[in-house]
Every structure is written in C-alpha cells, then in structure tokens.
Amino acid sequence: MTLLDIKSLKITSKGQIAIPKDLRDEKFKEGDKVALLAYDDRIEIRPISYVSEKLGTAFASEKSLAKDWESPEEDEVWEDL
Fold first, then answer.
1. In a domain? residue 17
2. Residue 36 DSSP code
C-alpha cells in the first residue's frame, strides 16, 4: 500500500474528527457508510463496501442484534460470568 498523503487532525472533546475536504471529495461522498478498523498501531477508515468485499463479512448493527440479545433469558445466561 502506497502512502499518498499525511494530514494533521484535531480530536474534539466528543471524540470527533473531520476528514479534510480534498480527501472527502476524492474518496467518499455524503451518506457513504464507513468502517473504522482499529489495529494496535493505527486506525483506518474504509468504505463499508471495501471491508465487506475484502473480508467477506456481513455487518450486523447493535439494533438488529438487540432483539436476540436483550432478553431475560439471555441476561440470565450471562449473569454469573
């Protein structure tokens, strides 16, 4: 992988960053979904389509899993762990 550019960003008190406009215009468009990949030594922001394609993974949201995971029966199973 070739490094194309280095940008300096500030993290806000809410943990937010802004992707510089030139990179947004080149790599993303408004409404795109992205994945944040956290490694020991770096963080990558990738389009969901790239991650899904490369990893062959289906992404499930917390909301979609909640119906199966947020139940009295599930809570009881995890209670003593």
1. no
2. E
